[in-house]
Amino acid sequence: MTAARGGHPGVMSVTSGVPALVVPPSGAEGAPSDDGVRVTVHPAEDVLLPAGAPLGALRAGLAALLRRPELRHAPLTADGVPVADADVVGHRPLLPGVTLAVAREVGDPVEDVVRDAVLRRPWLVARADGVDAGVVTGLRPGVPTTLPASPGAASGTGPTIVVRTRSRRPDRVHVRTRSGAARLVRTTAGGRRRVARVGRLPRRWRPGSRLEAAGARYTLHASGEVGRWLAPPAPAERTEPTGHGAGIAAAAVVPVVGSLVLAAALRQPVYALFSLVGVLALVPQLLAARRRRRARAAPGGQDDGGPVAATATNAAPPGSEPGRVLARVVAAHEASDGAWRRAVQHDRTGARAPGRTSGDGDGSPLGALVPDGALAVRGPRDAARAVARAVVVDIAAAGASVTVLGAGRDAWSWCRWLPETGPRAVVVDAADDLGAEHRGAPVPRPGDPLGPDRVDVVVLCLPVDAAPPSWCRTVWEVRDDGLVQRRAPDGTAAAEPLVGVSAGWAEGFARRVAGLAALRRELTSLAAADGTGAGAGGRRARPGVLGAPGADDRVAVDPTDPRLPSEVSLAELLAADLPATGSRGLTHGAARAAVHAWDASEGWAVPLGVDADGRTVRLDLVGDGPHLLVAGTTGSGKSELLQALVLGLASRRSPRDLALALVDFKGGASFGPCSALPHVVGQVTDLDAGLAGRALAGLRAELHRRERLLADRGAADLAALAGHPDAPPRLVVVIDEFRALADDLPEFLPGLLRVAAQGRSLGVHLVLATQRPAGAVSADVRANVSARVALRVVDAADSHDVVDTGAAARIRPGTPGRAVLRLGAADPVALQCAHAGTAPSAGPVVRRAPAWRAAGYPPALPPSDLTDRPDEPGRPSEPQRPGAAERLVAALREEASRRGLAAGPAPWLPPLPERVTAAEAASLVPAGSDPAATTLPLALGDDPARQCRRLVSWSPADGHLAVVGTARSGRTTTLVALARTALGGGWHVHALAPRAGRDAFAPLTRHPGFGTLAGPDDPRRAARLLRLLAAHEPAPGAAPVLVVVDAVEQLRAALAGPDPWDPLAAALAGRGTAFAVAADGATVGGLAPRVGPRLVLLGRDPHADVVLGAPSPLAGSGGPPGRGAWLGGDAALCQVLLPGTGPVPVPATEAGTETGTDRPGPVVVRPLPVVVRAATLPAPARETVVVLGAGGDAAEPVSLDVAGGALVSGPRGSGRSSVLRLVARRLASAGRLAGVVSRDADLRAEAGVAPAAVPAPAAVRRLLDDLAPGVLVVDDLDLLAQTCPVEAELVAGLLGPGGHDVGGRVLVASATTTGALLAHRGALAELRATRTGVVLHPGERGADDVLATPLGETAEPGPPRPGRGALVASGRARPVQVALP
To answer: How far apart are CA 901 and CA 656, in angstroms?
Structure first.
């Protein structure tokens, strides 16, 4: 058979013979409810009574609900036991399952017959087969009892069986028949059957023998005491006749007879004395037999199980002895607490039946009953249901909860009394097939999820012609002859008598089980050898139940106790101590009444919740603490518990006495409205991991402050300062998810424990909450945190770690707030924690219990329909009303404001501001912390150890400053702010920054104290500035100099060249100049050994921050730009000061630098212009001086004196002809031009009246022949030497050494750099010797050798610019931009 696994989530059926099933929704009608105690009001009204309420408070509600006025005042009974108005619901006699009735309406309930048979009669007879098996009859001594006839027998045809126990010998039972035949059958341990007929004469009936008459079977059990049913039965071997009587007689007679025969034969009377030996040997045997009889008569000493007890107990099928199961349930229900504990202790000391294992094969509590997890009963409807009921009775007795599905669900209404705890058993009743329209969806199988649980056992009740699912291999066939064919999973089959129970019998049983659950008792806590499901052999008892294996020997705690309420209102518990509000609780109008406790409270006990007895559980942090640990998995109600605790403390103590510090590492929403309490002095979330570290440091500082305060006052602890005006409030630090906090900050937990160890006497209390207690609850935590609360946890080991018991692991999902509390060495207490958001109720409410009806009409809503539905279109949404917690917080805030009370200072510094200016920082630091004149304020720093701020300042005397950080961390802003501060302090400032960050420094260039702004894109000027600063010797009284370098790695790369001299390193090694360099790595661009203090700008990644050089405690504390770690002495977290927005004020010392005062201004290396017009240049004073363009450090007009000759070199296109045109124009205007030789017509045109020639031999010769005194300008002299070598020699011959002759002739020529370098003789060689001229593109290889002058300071990287070069005069070079002619 294949199951279809689809369809509606609430419908289940199979394609076999099983009709459709509809699963009732969680908490639907018919399911047992944990919202109250379910009882029946006679005759048949099921109601839910609130647990813990006295009956007298419920009478009016019962009368109104059921419309029975007599219930207001008439005396009532519970199962025949009179009850008083003071009796509490959930306690005896008002346990779940009882029937309440007016005393005059009913007599003794039916259940009294069973109770009398179990508790008051020495013997009990139980019907062992048939559809009404399990019916028990008690035997009263001296009174004959007639057993009821079989239901199948015709009237007058069955035998009449009379059972009687004598008054003088109540330990013996005799049976006889008045009509018909009967027999007693005993099965030996070897499987042999011994049959004894029963007639009209009485015949002894021993336990272990089965009475059979007309198809009915009965078993006999010793009864009359609770201990007989709770103690483990005797081993099977003891139930067999041992033959001790015959053996004793033989041992005594043989010696006597032998001695007499010997005396007669030998005629020696003396031998007759040997007969005394046999008599003496008989005495100890008689004594031993007597002890055995007494042992069998003692509780648990006589095996009274039927045929199953006499055979292998593990082979007993479920439901085989319902009478015995009922008797054990009744005994457990009626036993006193002492008797129950003795029985459990007897079990736990090892009283186990032989052959029983310590656990079932599959590890399930129900594995011993249904090893395969599924069982199908098939047959006629009534008989199949009776058999299935007997099986389910055993399953329920084993502690399982039962869910009934299927078309025949109405027949199982008795299951409404079974508790909803323990393993999940599903009953599928399809005995009434409603038709094929219900087929198509799957039947739940073992292991399938069912709500929050999984299915452990499935019992199918099927019609005769239905085929069970393929996964169900255990099938019982109910035959017409009264037998049941049981087919096991291995294929073996056996026919046994039908054993079933009626619905009425099952309901009586279920009511008793409901009472057991309220008493926290389970039969699985007891050892048994009957295999019927009533014992614990081979099955596990539920932890937390009284007597459960593995529970604490001293006490058992059950967080699944049905008497525990599902919800408790904190406002209601708070109001219970306030007579002004009465039982109405803290409503919106009466919320202010809570603050009266600020004046009236004594002590620190606050309500935490309600236990199973309805008592308020209180926690006193001062008396029970001083610290509290709370553990619970997601959805267990941990945050709600913390809110209730915080609100409870705030409602009892004013902000004058109580300060709350909230640390939330679960996203910042754990404390809800509690964050607005007037008691809250500080709050930390996981959104700022660095703040957590400061919080710990602040707590240490607070402890030190309190220690000093107590020492100054001579007080031993904070309590000794009560009423003193200087007494600090008690500080309660609540940390939600401290395990996550400890994972993020490994040093946090040890530091927290140190705080916990010192906090008791100093009035500092910790409340630690975590979802993962495993590993977090160390020996140190146990030593310092004595109060512990465990909400629902997923593992028993976690529960043991917190409260030393595994009970918290048994808390069911869907019950938030259910917890186990342990205070020190006291016994744990199960409670339902108070919920701050629950409004107080108007009082105990009586409700009708959900009726048990067929599921599926209407069908269950899917899970998505169970959530809140959005407002319908067109329907206005109602405004969100404040809840009970919000109203309470508002009332406390109002009262605190009325009294003028405000929260005190935080125990830790608040988060550093994300943006802070110098003016704002000055207002945040203590007085007297102004920086010295020689230091520069840099940032606002944290000093958590002293709980104050400080101004982080940099003193250049401590070394150069390194600002290290990644992109967009605030490096440039830090340098700009530093430069602005320095300018305002009279410093001279220079900035070397890349082009991307240069705009940030542009506003500062207008300040008279600002010098040079350059960067990696202008390395010539940067190098020139650094050379000037390296050679700078500060004069007395001179302004200090600051150079800020942004992106130092880029600058060093731009300055790198063939020259091994590093201008930046040399400047750092110089005197009188302070550097602040920004880098993106801890090596500071290779300058790490040359810097001193560091500012590491932090990010979110602690590992990346550590790589940058940040200390581990501060790593990862970044976020906003400018957040950094100051490493100048003690490490400190800081926020860089932002630069101002207005103009920088000019100090008086700098005000006259531009007007010619004695104090020199800053060094300025200005950039050369890209284009210079010749018309804009001034006229020179001398005739041989030519103004070539703009150059030098000031980018001013520069000139060249050509009186001694000059050489212009450079590659092609570099502007050589332009230089010669400027020279020719100037000399021609002065009348000093002798001639021009050039291919360039423009250059020849500049000659004016002077001769000009192209570089041809004839033309050059004619020009030289008529050459007048003056300056001869020759373009491309190196090319002329190649094309006109003779004429080139003539040019050299006309001139003397140095490029001029005695007759006043001077040569100014141009050549390529290569041509000039290759000239070793002639005119070019002579011109090079003058070391005067213009070298264009000085960065070209070999340019330094043209005029034998270093040109590194004048060279610029990148492609050559026309006209850009070096002006060399007598071996000294200056950069120049040649003007356009």
So the answer is: 7
**How far is the C-alpha of 323 from the C-alpha of 506, rounded, in Å?**
11
Rounded to an integer, what distance in angstroms lies between the CA atom of residue 424 and that of residue 962? 68
Centroid of chain to Cα 893: 31
How confident is the model over 287-303, as pLDDT tens digits?
777 766 655 554 444 44
Question: How large is the greatest C-alpha to C-alpha distance in the chain, in angstroms?
Answer: 194
- CA atoms 1171, 1177, 1181, 1182: torsion sign: positive
Q: How many whole angstroms separate alpha carbon 777 and alpha carbon 325?
A: 43
**From 500-504, 529-533, 1335-1339, the region with the lowest mean pLDDT:** 529-533
Closest by CA to 311, choosing from 424, 193, 419, is 193
CA 755 to chain centre: 23
Which positions make up the binding site? Answer: 632-639
Sign of the alpha-carbon torsion through 512, 518, 524, 527: negative
Half-sphere exposure of 485 (CA within 13 A, CB side): 11
- Taking Cα atoms as reference points, which of 991, 801, 860 lies closest to residue 809? 801
Q: Is 1119 exposed, middle or buried (0-12, 13-18, 19+ CB in 10 A)?
A: middle
Spatial distance between the Cα atoms of 169 and 151, rounded to a whole number of angstroms: 32
DSSP result, 9-62: TTEE--SSS---EEPPPTT-TTS--TTSEEEEETTTEEEEEPTT-BGGGGHHHH
In DSSP notation, 402-456 reads: EEEESTTGGGGGGGGGS-S-SSEEEEEE-SS---GGG-SSPPP-TT-EETTEEEE
* pTM of the shown model: 0.60
What pairing do the DSSP bridges indicate for beta strands 81-83 and 76-78?
Answer: antiparallel
Given this model, what pLDDT does residue 1010 score? Answer: 93
Evaluated on CA atoms 183, 184, 187, 188, the torsion sign reads negative
CA distance 1003 to 391: 92
Known binding residues for ATP:
632-639
Question: Position of tokens 């992109």?
Answer: 967
10 Å CB burial of residue 294 (0-12, 13-18, 19+) is exposed
Q: For strand 658-664 and strand 730-736, is the pairing parallel, antiparallel, or unpaired?
A: parallel
CA 170, distance to chain mean position in Å, is 66
Amino acid identity of residue 164, one-letter, is R
Token pair in block for residue 670: 């754990």
CA distances from 1271 to 280, 347, 1227, 1238, 1300 (A): 164, 130, 8, 14, 9
Instruction: Write b or e for each residue in 947-986: b if 16 or more Cβ atoms lie within 10 A of its Cβ, otherwise e.
Output: bebbbbbbbbeebbbbbbbbeebbbbbbbbbbbbbbbbbb
> Quick one: tokens of 1173?
């017009």
**Secondary structure of 1190-1242 as H, E, C letters:** EECCCCEEEEEECCCCEEEECCCCCCHHHHHHHHHHHHHHHCCEEEEECCCHH
Alpha-carbon torsion (871, 873, 875, 879), positive or negative: positive
Give, in order, the Cα–Cα distances in Å from 483 to each of 137, 208, 215, 997: 24, 22, 11, 98
DSSP at 346: H
Percent of the chain with pLDDT strictly greater than 90:
29
CA distance 923 to 917: 10
CB atoms within 10 A of CB 89: 25
Tokens read off for 356: 């029983």
The separation between CA 707 and the C-alpha centre of its own chain, rounded to angstroms, equals 35
- The tens digit of pLDDT for each residue in 957-982 reads 999 999 999 999 999 999 999 999 99
Tell me how many helices (H) and strands (E) the chain has. Answer: 33, 57
Helix axes 111-119, 322-334, angle to 10 degrees: 80
Provide Rg for the chain, Cα atoms: 53
Pairing of strands 764-770, 628-631: parallel
Cα–Cα distance measured from residue 398 to residue 422, given in angstroms and rounded to the nearest whole number = 9
Question: What confidence score (pLDDT) does residue 12 get?
Answer: 35
